[in-house]
Amino acid sequence: MIDRNKKKDESIFDFYLRFGGRLGHDPNPEFSELLYRRFHPDVYSDLLKNKDGWGYRHYVAYGRAEADRRLPTRAEIEAVRRIVVHLDPQFLSAEYDISPEEYVSPFDFYFSQVRDLKVSPSSAFCEASYRELNADVDEEIRSGTLHSGFAHFVHTVKKEKRKYQTVDEYEQKLRRDELEAKKKVLEENLPGITHTYAFDVIRMIEFFTKDIDIVFETSEQPCMIVLVPNFLPEILFGGYLAFFEFLHALKEASGIELRLVVFNEASEDKNKWNAMRMRLYGDHRANIFSSIEYMAETRQLHIPLGSKVISYCAETHYPAHFIAERLQTIPFFFIQEFEPHFHANGDTFTFSCNAFALPHYGVYNSSVLRDYFLNEGGMRRIHGRTYRYCSFENHINRIAISKAEFEEKNKDKKIRRLVFYGRPEQHATRNQFATFAMGLREAIGRDYFKGGAWDFVSIGSLVHEGQFPLTDGCKLRIVTKMPVGDYIDFLQMGDIGVSFISTPHPGIVHFQMANYGLVTLTNTTGNRSAEWISAQSGNLVPVDLTPASIAEGLRVAVQRSLDLDARYENARDAPYLSRSECLQPALDAVLAELDLPHSRTPERSAPANSSATTLVFPGAEDRLETPKAAANG
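Request: output the structure for the sequence above.
Response:
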């Protein structure tokens, strides 16, 4: 302490006269400066007025001649000195508001206020924390038998080894406690709001964009590396089925070897378990791969030279791009939706958008989605006139029963059925479960379903089953996904269908419902006008995604559902493409791009009205038209 305040070349005696005495340093072993001030209030008051004075100076001049002046015992002096040696005046002055009008020095402040204000002697020891950590010490201080926690620590440290914290450690604890309390209140009122989502996003971005150790191999057989984020039977529907069906057809047509890469952060053991279940319970179209590799642990891939690459989604297109660059090729991108719409307009939205800006050959799920990407999604601007792509359509079954059978199934029903493609899980918010439920409630409240009993059913949930309360005692029955055969039978017993999709893909389920004879509500979007929807099928009822519009659409559907003749004829007249007609144009385009030496492509021609494939898109002055036959994608 002396070294910190002593001037260069200043003697200890000169330091004492200039600074030490006033601060509270003792002049000799038999005198305590701080206790002399404390025992004699008149001296202390005089020192507050006389800024150049200190206690020992008063004692030498006056006190030793005054018989009533009390001097501390040697034990009292030693007790104070054991404390003073650890006091940091700079810390005390900086940490506490010490008025020179009330205190001669920071040491006086410390001894005067340590009990009440829990004053810490230095940054190395926190008085408040010591009392909190040692309740018995705090009790002694409260009772008056102990002056401070630090005094107890100094006297017992060697034998008791009590826990203590520095001032910084305690302040950090208080800050953590403060933030934790704030977090608790926020989470009670706004669940999830305090989750550090951005940190998760950074980890996710790093996982998909980090370098891959590629071990090149030689192979006589043409090979395609297939990247997916997941591979398990529970999600083998929709996009995954479309992807695997296309790859299955590609393999059948060309003989190309398909090697799967599962790109996620799960352990290799878990991914292998999922792959085994996929072989046992998955669709045969998923069992088309000669090998499966996993990226979570090794980040190493074995790839034959000359391989092609195809990615399933935006996330996997980053590693697909990395691999393709090493192979000096352009990866295929199986584009099934404008994926940024799956995310809030933040980091993940940007990450997804940027994936589509990477070089690729686009394989689009429907010409409607293709046109959206070209005209609204920025592909023309980003990739220019040399951008190459193709599109396929989704096969929609046609009603397969006679008119007499249809009438027999639907005439004189005691209970009529509304079937809603409703998936209440977060991943399926684009299907608008909540919005439809509000519209259905409004329709029921307006008595649009009076005159008969109705069974309101939501199909498509992953695992949730039960009943969702609507109004007036009505409930929406929620059932999980069904096997294909049961699903077809279930739909064909319906009267009204509802299927919404708020993203650019034209959708599938509502077209299937209409093709099975259900009067079906579906929503308009920026690339699906009411006129366009109505032109696709006479069984479709376009609505806006508002409860009022949905309720009105249901009123119309209830009335039109009574006309069995019109329902059946509209179903029979719906545009129809066979499975081969849906896939073949895109398949031919990809095979041409692959330029394989021994392709087994069958000699088929695309239907004249499909326009399903476009290899180099036209100039900005040209507009790609979507034919009615392609609208069922």
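The chain has three domains: 2-122, 203-359, 403-572.
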